[in-house]
Amino acid sequence: MLAEVIDWLQPQQGGLFVDCTLGLGGHGEALLNASPDVVLIAMDRDDEALAVARERLKIFENRFQTVHANFEDVAAVLGKLDVDQARGILADLGVSSLQLDQSERGFSFASKAPLDMRMDRSAGETAADLVNSLPEAELADLIFDYSEERGARKIARAIVRERQREPVTTTDQLAAIVVRALRIPGRWRIHPATRTFQALRIAVNGELDALKRLIPDAISMLTPGGRLAIISFHSLEDRKVKQSFLRESGRCTCDSGTAMLLLTQPRTKPARIATAAGERDEKIVCERCGARERVRILTRKPVRPSEEEVSRNPRSRSARLRVCERL
Hints:
DNA polymerase, domain 1; alpha/beta
């Protein structure tokens, strides 16, 4: 969604932009090409991707800087660089093409590979560690919570049964276990193991927790009128982004009973909030869910890729772009 990102972030007038998920550098290159006055800080937790992107962006010389870091650490990264405000921040969530195409990373079940799935291979537990150590109930909850897989308990039971005979260590081994557990006959439009692999990847990389921290911190670092753009690739991510944007725009996201009770209480006065960019008045709407008026939502519904892009790049078919603007 390269053209859509540029349209919404509007880098043509220059300024400081942050790409929290640089990947192979496609979005970063487009931002830098938009204006000679654009300066880019680019983050990624994958050192291999950073190396590829640095080579791609070297023609821009001193207008970009790369940082090996998780996107949830955007505020800390900018603080260390003495940056207090940005005109635009981008996060393109999910797995990069580099990670999918390198079979040894274990993100795909298309070929036999170690069951790894770490975006940062320098630290953390692998997917194999989880499937071979978690109790059956916890494994079932993980698969259901992070993929909404209805057969999660069957899959967890089958994994535990298999690992009692031998450890589950490869992608093809896990995929076969899932297929047998779900007993789905015939050819599949979507492979039966897709949701299970998604759930393990999210758990291994802590993606939803990181997203929860990213959004409020990124908004705090935006200059008034600055924009935050997030591309998600599955409903769990998109739901998190939508709810966070609603809270940051002043919409209470508590359950209806709690919301009705809060409406009977006196409205909270604007609070003086200290941020890295200084102090700002922010109207706290609900102290329970954290709703406060800091942004204006620009995309009422998520922006989807064009038919032409999906035809050219089938991996983009599930992409959803949401954008908000700092008040």
